[in-house]
Amino acid sequence: MSIWNELAPAAFRLEYVDAGGVRTRTLRAGPEGEHRGPAVVFLHGTSGHLEAFTRNIAVHAERYDCHAVDMLGHGYTGKPNRPYEIPDYTEHLLAYLDAVGVERAHIVGESLGGWVGARAAVEHPERVASLQLLCAGGTVANPEVMDRIRTSTKAAVSSDDVELTRKRLRLLMADPVDATEELVEVRHAIYHAPDFVANVDNLLSLQNMEIRRRNLLTPEYLGRITQPTLIIWGRQNPFGEVPEADRMHRAVPGSRLELFEKCGHWPQHEQADRYNPISLEFLAKAAG
């Protein structure tokens, strides 16, 4: 099924907003005016883009004011020339919320997006209503995993060979069928935009051990999260095993953990039919 078919049930728009001086691409959907629901912001992972959530937007937009955002330095969003650390991503997220007039949002963060969401939840609790951590990064510094992310991304960006982009996308999925050719084309185009090529080392800076360690989410830090928190993890996640999710679950007070069988690093995409009802149930309770 095409991305356009997945989005078709919702009235949506792609637009660019100025978020603290950074031109930021966003996909917005949901009721307008007096019928507008609580804001839900979807944040993707390292070297990703907002299309990671096209299987989730339509059903969430029936009730919620949905925002899928290309994060700082990613996708078609602006790329300031400096290494990006978690406070930089968090600052950009808050600037985006300010730009679109959202005082408080439910954050859905996949991988890097979860890392950023957790940081925002602790440092700016008044802006985060609830938190979803989908195979979230940021709790460990595994040299093997970091090297896998760095080398696979650099290889796909440095060569025009679309097979390298296909391999990078398939790395995320338990079933390669979920890395659709349309997604491969979208990612290949992003990876080979001149500003992305020039900026790739900046967005991979968290794969540097020294930088990563000073940005890690420790158990003590996660223990400061007060918002309702849903953790979803794929049992075949190539970037983190189930014990990592268990530790996160134990650290975040009152959190809920859901493990998905036959699932990799994109649970919201690979198993959208399972994820969407769980997310909607969680949001309904969190939003009251």
UniProtKB/TrEMBL annotation:
Domain AB hydrolase-1: 38-270
Protein name: Alpha/beta fold hydrolase
Highest classification ranks of the organism: Bacteria, Bacillati, Actinomycetota, Actinomycetes, Pseudonocardiales
InterPro entries to which the protein is assigned, alphabetical: AB_hydrolase_1, AB_hydrolase_fold, AB_hydrolase_sf
Keyword Hydrolase found: yes
GO molecular function: hydrolase activity
Keywords, sorted A to Z: Hydrolase
Provenance organism: Pseudonocardia eucalypti
